[in-house]
């Protein structure tokens, strides 16, 4: 493959993977304010942050980027994502300061059953997340990503191109153990009003959900590898993976 074509495919691949990673990380942060009952929703005991529902896609994105673009490739999109998440929250915070239009309040003053409803209060409650949640989630995100990227590469140096499932699952087991507890501890214990027992209970359930999701989604990881290898070609795939192993940037 000509150098220019290889460089173009390499760039396009990184852009697509980064886009998938970024949008799911941003979604997880925005919807993560909601804690839902797993028992009432799925019939299983426990509570989860809604953000963890899309977090497995971030796991896969992290591992695939790491496989082809190395630790630096993961950290580059991680720090860009953090910056864009902060930007998104600042914009959202700014909109909560805007004075609502009277007709908008009047048109939405009752819900579907005719009960009194304050749409401005609802908007504020949903979108104006506390500083603790933002600090906790971004701190956990960065720590988790650095751990994931580092552990993944350590496993890869040991296993080579074999055992994709081992390095993917192993890095998730370690990184998410830290991530799951840090985010809730900072957000809801240090800055919030949760007792430590509640933090540990929800964090433990969140962690085991992430572990189960990482294991169950392993076939998707292999599918992603298959599609990317076909897109790049055998020789180019090997070259890109070797670059990633020595931690070169894109």
From TrEMBL:
* Pfam families in the cross-refs: Vut_1
One term under GO cellular component:
plasma membrane
From which residue to which does the signal peptide run? none
Give the GO molecular function terms.
Answer: transmembrane transporter activity
InterPro entries assigned: YhhQ (IPR003744)
Could you tell me where this protein is found in the cell? Cell membrane
List all membrane-crossing ranges. Answer: 12-36, 42-62, 74-95, 131-152, 164-187, 207-228
User: Topology relative to the membrane, per the entry?
Assistant: Multi-pass membrane protein
Alphabetically sorted, this entry's keywords are: Cell membrane, Membrane, Transmembrane, Transmembrane helix, Transport
Function, please?
Involved in the import of queuosine (Q) precursors, required for Q precursor salvage.
Instruction: Identify its protein family.
Output: Belongs to the vitamin uptake transporter (VUT/ECF) (TC 2.A.88) family. Q precursor transporter subfamily.
Q: What is this protein called?
A: Probable queuosine precursor transporter
Q: Which organism is it from?
A: Hymenobacter setariae
């Amino acid at each position: 493959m000509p150098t220019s074509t290889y460089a173009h495919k390499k760039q396009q691949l990184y852009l697509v993977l980064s886009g998938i990673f970024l949008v799911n990380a941003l979604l997880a942060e925005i919807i993560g304010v909601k804690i839902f009952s797993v028992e009432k929703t799925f019939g299983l005991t426990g509570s989860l942050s809604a953000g963890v529902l899309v977090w497995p896609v971030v796991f896969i994105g992290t591992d695939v980027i790491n496989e082809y673009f190395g630790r630096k490739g993961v950290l580059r999109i991680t720090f860009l994502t953090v910056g864009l998440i902060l930007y998104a929250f600042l914009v959202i915070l700014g909109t909560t300061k805007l004075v609502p239009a009277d007709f908008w309040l009047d048109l939405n003053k009752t819900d579907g059953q005719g009960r009194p409803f304050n749409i401005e209060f609802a908007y504020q409650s949903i979108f104006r997340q506390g500083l603790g949640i933002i600090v906790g989630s971004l701190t956990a995100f960065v720590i988790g990503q650095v751990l994931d990227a580092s552990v993944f590469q350590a496993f890869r140096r040991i296993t080579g191109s074999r055992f994709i499932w081992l390095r993917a699952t192993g890095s998730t087991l370690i990184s998410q153990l830290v991530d799951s507890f840090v985010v809730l501890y900072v957000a809801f214990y240090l800055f919030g009003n949760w007792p430590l027992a509640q933090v540990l209970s929800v964090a433990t359930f969140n962690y085991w959900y992430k572990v189960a999701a990482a294991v169950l989604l392993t076939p998707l990881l292999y599918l992603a590898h298959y599609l990317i290898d076909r897109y790049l070609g055998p020789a180019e795939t090997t070259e890109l993976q070797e670059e990633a192993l020595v931690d070169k940037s894109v």
